[in-house]
Amino acid sequence: MEHDIWIYILVTGLVSYLIRVTPLALIRREIRNRLVRSFLYYVPYVTLAVMTFPAIMDSTQTPWAGLAALGAGIFAAWRGRSLFQVAVFCCVTVFALELLLL
Amino acid sequence: MQNKRDYYRRGLRDGLPIALGYFVVAFTLGIAAKRAGFSPLQALLVSAVNNASAGEYAAFALIEAGASYWEVAVMTLVANARYLLMSCALSQKLRPDTPLVHRLAIGYDVTDEIFGISIAFPGYLEPWYTFGAMSVAIPGWATGTSLGVVMGSVLPLRAVSALSVGLYGMFLATIIPESRKSRIVAGLVAVSFLVSYLASRLPALAGISAGTKTILLTVVISLAAAVLFPVKEADGDGA
């Protein structure tokens, strides 16, 4: 089946907006259900972790560079570095390591 | 008493470093957009309407694989589910009489960073502060993505390889600080890494696309964590 990129853009944009705007527009009181609150609290960490590993190893020319970037990113983020600094640190790690290995 | 122009300016000032970071990270997202077949204009637009790193990245991977519109919609929903929680928290931060049109506008750009500075605003959130930050962050994100599509093919392989991990760096910058504060989150991140690795290597799961695996694993692991370790009343409104 052929897919149109413009429709993909429409679909993702619509979903992204509805997720964010619905609570702001409708919910004017706190969510009390503990299970729902807990689930929503854990979702971001789990989904980002699942997406990061092992995919980071497949994104570089050699998996070792990706693995090193993972270590470097965890280290920098653990030290409280900003989003921008962590991202750059990962990139520099891969660049330096691939310069050595390849 | 400050007026809305002052709040707007303050938002601009606080949004500028965010926009700069977005620009660089979005560049690496653009490389993924190009692989999925996006033109520079389409990349500009998709980032301008989504404002989401993980959500867009996951969607691009599915689109590249020729996934259905439904699959992409569900993936976008799951990858962006955290914004639902952030918007819930943000709704408590608004004056109850905040006009609907302001609520609709704030909802356009609830990202980890914009949420972070909005929730840190003293007292009730002044919508114009958030608008100020949005008005630099959104263009930074969108133009970065577009430039990634344009430049991704011009850059040497070595540079593309290095830049493509920038996005993962952004993910780590989101999950690690909370892992440091909460041992449960730290354990959960470790478990997620492990299960995700196993899921990618198990022959039994080879038929399922990476995006669908992400959805399944996220729901199963998060639900298990919610049942086993329900958050206390004070937690869970930040993220």
Protein architecture, described:
The complex is a heterodimer of chains A (102) and B (239). With 102 residues, chain A is an all-alpha fold. Chain A has five helices and no strands. Chain A has helices at residues 5-26, 34-52, 55-58, 63-78, 83-101. Chain A is extended and about 55 Å long. Chain B has one domain (4-228). In chain B, 75% of the residues lie in helices and 0% in strands. Chain B has twelve helices and no strands. Chain B has helices at residues 4-35, 40-50, 53-64, 69-79, 81-91, 100-106, 112-119, 127-152, 157-163, 166-181, 183-201, 210-228. In chain B, helix 1 runs parallel beside helix 3, helix 4 (69-79) runs parallel beside helix 12 (210-228) and helix 11 (183-201) packs antiparallel against helix 12. Classes of the chains: A mainly alpha (102), B mainly alpha (239). At the A-B interface, helix 1, helix 2, helix 4 and helix 5 of A face helix 1, helix 2, helix 3, helix 4 and helix 5 of B.
